Sequence to fold (793 residues):
Amino acid sequence: MSVMSQDVKVVAPAATTGQALRLFAERRRSFWVVLSLLVLFTAWEIAGRVPISFAFPTFLDTLAAFFEMVADGSMIRAFFLTLQPLVLGVAISALLGIALGIVMGLSDRLEWLLAPVFIVLQAAPMAALVPLVTFVYGIGLVAKTLAVIMLALPVIVLNSYKAVRHVNPSLVDMCRSFQGTRRQQIFKIIIPDASPVLFAGLRLGVAAGFIGVMLAELLITPTGIGDLITYHRSVANYAHMYAAVTAIIAASTVTLALLQWFETNVMRPEKRRS
Amino acid sequence: MTVTALAADTFDPASVVTHDPVVRVEAICKHYGSTEALRNIDLQFERGKLTTLLGPSGCGKTTLLKIIAGLVPATSGQIVVNGRAVTGPGPERAFVFQDFALMPWATVLRNVGFGLELKGMAAAERNRIARRYIEEVGLQGFEDKYPHELSGGMRQRVGIARAFAVNADVLLLDEPFSAVDEQNRRKFQEDLLRLVEMERKTFIFVTHSIEEAVYVSDRIVLLSPRPGRVSNIIDPRIDRTANPDDIRRDPGYLDVVEEIWQGLRHYAE
Amino acid sequence: MTMFGYRIPMMASLIVWALVWEIVGRLDIIFLIPPMTAIIAAGFDLVQTNSWQNATLVTIRSFVIGMALAIGIGVPLGVMMGRVKIIDNIFGLWVNIFVSAPLSALVPVLMILFGMGEATIVVTVFLFAVWIIVLDARAGVMQVPSSLVEMARSYGASQATIMRKIILVSALPEILAGIRIGVIRGVKGVVIGQILVAVIGYGELFELYSRSFDMERFWALTLVLFAAAMVLSAIVENAEKRIEYYAGAR
Fold:
């Protein structure tokens, strides 16, 4: 089956444009990105034209709706509202989660006490608890921020904890052999060595945070993007509703891709082991 | 030219007398749970000499080295360095790691000066010292490179420079050349001999290569496995003034290698 | 952790937390937290009610169908992506987007497309679980040593045999790892779907208990769910361990 790609090379005769295109395809990842975007959007357009459902707008209609909402400012306002609990929740989860994860990684007692709780919380469907938050904190920003924290915190804690536990033991020995103090060991060896994994955990936390904020906006009270989705659904403005859903998925994808890019290109490129 | 290597002296471990021992290993035993890694090791390491711990895998040579370093606690027995019993790592000993243990996020300069950094030495001072040792191991020009930009051999030179930089009396080398390719390995062994000559320090060296042990050592301690015990002590008595290539062809050198191999072969699988 | 020379298993700390919960519950600080014993008692009551049994049946049915679809589509897609470059190039982007996308935003769309019933839940489970299964199956196939495939070919094995006896078997540890994470995500999917749809299965019960402030039953239901998620993941993990003996050798 791996011959498949080779077959293509051999079988396709020397049409010069085809060759050029193939060369381009091999060299450029962006070619495939564009192609796979095109494939899905075309499929979407066709499915919308059929239509497979009365509630399934075409891709072009959705795109038009998106620009309309950008133009009238409702999309920007919605993102502004959605980002508040998201950024707040992720920031709190990051600070608290990394700190908790690190102390759990450093102390056997705290590991014993806390790790099982977070293992359960990460594996469990935390979404079930979101309705509870409204009892205590109502329907405002605090409740939504808490919903984000509930989903983002466990994954950040567990990744930070694993990052610390998987620090290169040889480096720790090295630090001890030069009579480094425990403090020096933590700040000069353990945290720097763990930081790429800490950052990866943060990225997973952001992904979980997006799920949490959408859950909060759909479940607690509609605000921001959740409000756009709920409102346009209720008035059967499906193209606008799809545009809002697609926009939040795209926003999350771009955010995560940027974090990934940052991780591989800026976060200590020297760390890439040869 | 012919090498005037004398036939090696072999001693009964119990009767070996060492003048001016800098490190004394006294009745060291080590158990990992129910497995016995080391049984009743008694050894003395002479100042200014290079002693090799040699043996098949599982003989506990690295464990013994880490006990001497204070990185691993012994189950019983004690280590005496410069007349004082030690309980942990100390400034008079420096360790060179098999996997180099370089910080990937730090430059060569910072890696070499790291032991001094931990002691709280000011940056200017420790960089000056680090540069001197970087030069001594032949890495000048690489001060600002990161470990991943260096070859395996160069990385270990960084590890050795780091150990020298703290100016310890005793250098503990745990299979330092095992991750280095064969050509570089030979060059390394020669450089090591030069450093032993120059630095007048005590070297304790762990290896599983018989040739390497015979080539670099003043004294070889043979360990036998399961549990690790001292089975023999050999002084190769190689004439170091000879040309390295002649040494490796010298009958005396080859005899010692053969003798050790005969002693160890029944441990081979 | 060891205490007084005894090794205390890690999960034992959950007992400590349950005790803390009990004390907080007894102190009656917030109505949200009833004593653990009361929750457990409510749990025994709950599992005997008709509504719980029906909800469980509906939930399990949606979950199983959704997971079966996710595995049935995800594994073959992942294997194809691992073997065929073009398929990998075209689907790779979307799989990577959806594996970490906020799929909770998609549930309202599913609700209008598939109705307010089980079909929506099935699709939600499928969408939550399938992407990681694809990615792991792909990774598993990609790491099959080419020497192994060449060996089979040199002994005259057909493409089908190579696929069945070398590639699939070789990729099994990763495929199972993907399914395990898929199962955990599927459980989250079934809950998120049901809560957002709010009229079926556990979603309906959660809605009912939280509206009537029946905290004991609310927590009992949550505990049942959490326990089910842990047990399911433990089962797949166990299957993973069984095949680890040969995976460890490569």
